[in-house]
């Protein structure tokens, strides 16, 4: 179900982050609307975790601006409505799972919120009953991951930011994650990073693909008039193939210029134009890959980035 | 916030490294107490006069407590922020939905609470010791408050280090190195640049431990706290964009206070015996000399030198023109090396040396030495000997050994002089004491004393019924004995061991007795009367003490059946037992006491006899007695109950830490079982 809420709640503009002279985030801009479930996808080192750390206010960018409902990531109101889970979080050895949830709830909420209710809700949502009284250090990696994700859901926060949440989760728990993301209300915005394309396609409305700190593709998974094209040709060369009337119907947006080819988002509402484009791609050797729908485009783009075809 | 703070404290309690460190420091403190306690009992059994439970047990324990606090602070501190960062859980603090100041406080308070457990242990041991001895409670309170303040500053240093560290090991190393550097710098500063305005942690701690509250220390410690508290906040939230102007301003206020603390004057010595203050009379005399006081300590051991430095610190704080230097015995010439360790005081041409180890506490010993040095010039007390007088040096019960020791300790130079072998009474004799001559005097001896009196010399004459009183001296003074030994039958009925012991319980307004708060006892005393042959308008006789009514002058005191016999010429009534003669023309003071036994070793400690004797000497030499100098340490003994003894030996070092460890294991098991 794609939420059609166009109220912008997150705005990132010209974000730059360097670490030890290495550019981790390179002039990245994007916006996220309220209620969207956005997946951050990219290879290792693409900058997903850094972007998440910046979005949640854990680190400050050297340049650029992050605004959540017009406020800074350090704003207390934002923090109170933020659920966050970072990758590679380890167990606090002297706490049981329930004590950990209590600790998280107490640090997160303003005084008036009911800690017990919030914990009950996430326990039921994530089926934590069996591990609740076990020491964190005795939990399996999967259960620990589940516990750490679940704390982000405490108090049904308006913003959920999850860094590789399904890492170490078994297929059942991965599905639970997808279900829980789908269950989020229209007022809850979720941004999560992932390496799993299937899970991304199932859980997210929108995918932001990062590569070397740059935004490679902003893919709306529920957009039906959109297809993706990887080709060695320029926009002019592409447009030259089509008649003027077809050019009126189609819009080529160059998203990313790689060393070997370029990535285009093609928008057209005309089925004939789409078919012509497909035919062109089948015949043209300059075209590396044509993806007829956003959902189909994810894996090829991801592979192209991994294999260096882009 | 409170719940969160409690939960984080509980989290620290559960940490094995925190509990192991806590148990280790408690064991160390407990066994240290046991060792100090046993050492004290050993010294106590040797009847050492300068023993003080506070100095021997509490002070070293306070030092160990400070180190323990810092150690526990370091271990507890790395268990929070560096561990949370290392585990990737720092978002609990950084993304907390509570204001930055609150999130800072919830991190700092659990560390402070845990690090103050050694302090509580110290307090427990001190209170127990207080039950078994008579500690100076106010000094203990000051020391405990000092320990809190300095410990708090130390723990805040550690906390700040650990807000920078992103690994537990880094935090451990960083905070240990910084604390060690700070303490080393502080020690070095105290030794090398004692005049600097720098106020670190150690020197204020030492002063608090001595019971001194110095304004500069209070300001510096407050400055440190303000500075470190703000710094900690800034370091914790350095990545956040919360408002940092206010903590930054507060930080600079802290820096300002620390930097300028040395400029503030003022201090309070809050000890019962004013052990940290130089006697005001002595100070006045020192200032009159207007010369540097040079102290040279020939002492080898570093710890002993520290003791001397503590004494010097007191002198220096009051008399700025003081210097100290240390020398090793080996550096002296071979002819001096055998003498042992000593401390030499020099003021212009005057010298005074005292042997080390000191007989009394360091401050009192210094005061006595300086006082003695100053008095030597003009105020000798000379005991006449050669006619069977009670001797200040001899050891018989009828001699004046204890009185002699006391007045020597109070700084009067004392000499025993035979007027036949040394036929001169020196000009610097402040008081001549004749304590009951039993043999007749030679004419030239009598002449010497009469000349001395003629020149305005002061005299204390003690005469027993069997004493020989040189006739010309008696005539000059104008005071004679009434024949017979005074018998106080009512005193005997009241409990004295012999009727010939006169109890005086009604005191006059004379300065030597008006502040006494106890009885006086005069064994085998004689009554006195004024027999003034030539009336001198400048001379005034005053009765210092009178016997109660009903006392009679017994002629046969050895008889088994004592009774007043008027027919034999015995007199009954109230008699003068001590008379003062003051010559206004030359300010000469003479006191005649009809008894020498009251000041002898067998009776000087009865009732207020010793104080009366000292008051007489003080009045006659025109030097007020500094009562503190005479006062012994109240906490000179440690007498615990059987249970207390057991607790000192085993309770603090073994049982309590074991109990803590067992409690921890029990709670852990219970938690897991639940």
TrEMBL record, chain A:
Residues 10-237 form the ABC transporter domain. The keyword Transport applies. This is ABC transporter ATP-binding protein. InterPro entries: AAA+_ATPase, ABC_transporter-like_ATP-bd, ABC_transporter-like_CS, ABC_Transporter_VariousFunc, P-loop_NTPase. It comes from Aliikangiella marina. SUPFAM superfamilies: P-loop containing nucleoside triphosphate hydrolases. One of its GO terms (molecular function) is ATP hydrolysis activity. Keywords: ATP-binding, Nucleotide-binding, Transport.
TrEMBL record, chain B:
The keyword 4Fe-4S does not apply. InterPro entries: ABC_transp_unknown, Class_I_gatase-like. The chain crosses the membrane at residues 12-37, 57-82, 103-129, 141-165, 172-192, 212-236, 248-266, 646-666. The keyword Repressor does not apply. Residues 381-615 form the ABC-type uncharacterised transport system domain. Keywords: Membrane, Transmembrane, Transmembrane helix. This is ABC-type uncharacterized transport system domain-containing protein. It comes from Aliikangiella marina.
């Amino acid at each position: 179900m794609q939420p059609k809420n166009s109220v912008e709640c997150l705005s990132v503009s010209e974000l730059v982050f360097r670490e030890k002279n290495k550019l981790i985030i390179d002039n990245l801009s994007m916006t996220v609307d309220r209620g969207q479930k956005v997946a951050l996808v990219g290879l290792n080192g693409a900058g997903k975790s850094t972007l998440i750390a910046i979005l949640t206010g854990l680190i400050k960018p050297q340049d650029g601006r992050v605004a959540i409902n017009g406020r800074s990531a350090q704003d207390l109101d934002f923090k109170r409505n933020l659920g966050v889970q970072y990758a590679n979080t380890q167990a606090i050895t002297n706490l049981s799972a329930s004590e950990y949830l209590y600790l998280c709830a107490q640090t997160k909420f303003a005084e008036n919120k009911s800690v017990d209710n919030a914990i009950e809700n996430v326990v039921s949502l994530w089926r934590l009953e069996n591990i609740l009284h076990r020491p964190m250090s005795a939990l399996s990696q999967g259960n620990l991951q589940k516990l750490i994700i679940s704390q982000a859901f405490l108090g049904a926060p308006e913003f959920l930011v999850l860094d590789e949440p399904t890492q170490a989760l078994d297929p059942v728990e991965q599905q639970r994650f997808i279900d829980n993301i789908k269950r989020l209300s229209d007022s809850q915005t979720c941004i999560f990073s992932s390496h799993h394309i299937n899970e991304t396609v199932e859980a997210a409305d929108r995918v932001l693909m990062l590569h070397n700190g740059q935004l490679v593709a902003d893919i709306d998974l529920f957009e039906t008039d959109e297809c993706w094209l990887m080709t060695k040709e320029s926009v002019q060369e592409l447009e030259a193939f089509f008649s003027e009337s077809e050019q009126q119907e189609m819009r080529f947006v160059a998203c990313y210029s790689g060393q070997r080819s370029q990535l285009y988002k093609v928008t057209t509402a005309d089925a004939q134009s789409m078919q012509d484009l497909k035919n062109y791609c089948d015949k043209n050797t300059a075209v590396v890959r044509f993806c007829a729908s956003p959902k189909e485009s994810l894996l090829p783009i991801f592979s192209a980035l991994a294999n260096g075809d882009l | 916030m409170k719940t969160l703070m409690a939960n984080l404290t509980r989290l620290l309690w559960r940490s094995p490294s925190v509990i192991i460190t806590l148990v280790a420091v408690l064991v160390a403190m407990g066994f240290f107490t046991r060792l100090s306690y046993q050492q004290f009992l050993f010294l106590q059994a040797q009847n050492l006069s300068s023993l003080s439970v506070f100095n021997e047990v509490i002070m070293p324990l306070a030092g160990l407590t400070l180190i323990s606090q810092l150690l526990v602070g370091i271990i507890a501190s790395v268990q929070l922020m560096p561990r949370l960062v290392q585990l990737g859980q720092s978002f609990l603090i950084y993304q907390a939905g509570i204001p930055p100041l609150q999130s800072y406080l919830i991190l700092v308070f659990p560390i402070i609470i845990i690090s103050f457990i050694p302090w509580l242990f110290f307090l427990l041991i001190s209170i127990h010791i207080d039950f078994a001895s008579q500690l100076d409670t106010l000094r203990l309170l000051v020391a405990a408050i000092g320990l809190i303040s300095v410990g708090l500053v130390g723990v805040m240093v550690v906390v700040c280090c650990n807000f920078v560290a992103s690994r537990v090991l880094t935090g451990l190393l960083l905070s240990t190195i910084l604390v060690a550097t700070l303490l080393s710098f502080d020690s070095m500063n105290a030794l090398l640049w004692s005049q600097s305005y720098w106020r670190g942690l150690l020197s204020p701690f030492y002063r608090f431990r001595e019971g001194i509250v110095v304004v500069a220390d209070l300001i510096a410690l407050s400055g440190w706290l303000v500075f470190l508290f703000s710094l900690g906040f800034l370091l914790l939230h350095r990545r956040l964009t919360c408002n940092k102007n206010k903590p930054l301003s507060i930080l600079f206020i802290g820096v300002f206070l620390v930097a300028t603390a040395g400029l503030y004057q003022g201090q309070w010595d809050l000890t019962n015996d004013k052990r940290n203050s130089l006697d005001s009379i002595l100070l006045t005399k020192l200032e009159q000399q207007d010369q540097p006081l040079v102290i040279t300590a020939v002492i080898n051991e570093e710890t002993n030198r520290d003791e001397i430095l503590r004494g010097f610190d007191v002198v220096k704080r009051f008399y700025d023109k003081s210097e100290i230097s240390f020398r090793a015995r080996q550096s002296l010439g071979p002819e001096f090396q055998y003498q042992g360790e000593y401390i030499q005081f020099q003021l212009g041409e005057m010298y005074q040396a005292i042997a080390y180890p000191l007989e009394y506490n360091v401050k009192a010993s210094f005061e006595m030495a300086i006082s003695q040095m100053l008095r030597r010039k003009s105020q000798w007390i000379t005991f006449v000997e050669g006619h069977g007088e009670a001797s200040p040096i001899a050891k018989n019960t009828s001699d004046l050994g204890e009185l002699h020791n006391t007045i020597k300790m109070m700084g009067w130079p004392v000499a025993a002089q035979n007027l036949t072998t040394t036929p001169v009474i020196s000009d610097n004799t402040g008081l001549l004491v004749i304590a009951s001559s039993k043999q007749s005097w030679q004419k030239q001896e009598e002449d010497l004393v009469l000349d001395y009196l003629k020149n305005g010399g002061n005299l204390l004459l003690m005469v027993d019924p069997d004493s020989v009183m040189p006739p010309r001296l008696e005539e000059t003074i104008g005071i004679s004995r009434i024949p017979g030994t005074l018998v106080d039958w009512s005193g005997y009925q009241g409990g004295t061991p012999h009727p010939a012991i006169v109890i005086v319980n009604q005191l006059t307004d004379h300065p030597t007795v008006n502040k006494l708060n106890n009885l006086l006892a005069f064994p085998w005393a004689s009554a006195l009367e004024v027999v003034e042959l030539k009336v001198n308008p400048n001379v005034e006789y005053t009765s210092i003490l009178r016997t109660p009514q009903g006392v009679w002058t017994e002629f046969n005191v050895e008889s088994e059946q004592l009774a007043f016999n008027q027919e034999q010429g015995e007199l009954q009534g109230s008699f003068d037992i001590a008379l003062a003669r003051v010559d206004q023309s030359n300010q000469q003071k003479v006191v005649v006491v009809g008894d020498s036994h009251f000041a002898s070793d067998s009776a000087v400690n009865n009732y207020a006899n010793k104080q009366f004797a000292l008051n007489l000497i003080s009045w006659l030499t025109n030097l007020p007695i500094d009562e503190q100098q005479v006062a012994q340490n109240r906490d000179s003994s440690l007498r615990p109950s059987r249970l207390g003894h057991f607790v000192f030996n085993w309770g603090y070092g073994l049982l309590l830490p074991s109990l803590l460890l067992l409690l921890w294991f029990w709670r852990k098991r219970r938690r897991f079982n639940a």
